[in-house]
Amino acid sequence: xxxxxxxxxxxxxxxxxxxxxxxxxxxxxxxxxxxxxxxxxxxxxxxxxxxxxxxxxxxxxxxxxxxxxxxxxxxxxxxxxxxxxxxxxxxxxxxxxxxxxxxxxxxxxxxxxxxxxxxxxxxxxx
Length: 126
Description:
- By secondary structure, the protein is α/β, with parallel strands linked by helices.
- The chain has one domain: 5'-nuclease (Rossmann fold, 3-Layer(aba) Sandwich), CATH 3.40.50.
- It contains 6 helices and 5 strands, in the order βααβααβααββ.
- It has helices at about 10-15, 20-30, 40-50, 55-65, 75-85, 90-100; strands at about 5, 35-40, 70, 105, 120-125.
- α1 (about 10-15) packs across α3 (about 40-50) and α5 packs across α6.
- The longest helix is centred in the last third of the chain and has 13 residues, at about 90-100.
- It is globular and about 35 Å long.
């Protein structure tokens, strides 16, 4: 069985901005171990809008890795995400992705996900 991690916007930004050696280590370990990185499209949009332009090329590298999967927010997923937490759609999309696959959610702020009444393991980047 192939395993992986789901990255929320904060984890995506930690990698792309090169501010976290832990985020970089996680991404490259996942690549070396032939695991999967799931990036919710809402997280990608949030990261793209919040990162300085100089970090966009690094974000593009992450998006184009052969083991990166973008979880699109189609009509069915949008309904499920909206029901999880209508006030924080980016976080809700990340939770829905982690729930769906049974994989840990990587974030810089695990406390953000405590309000969700679901069992999703969170891995907090230091």
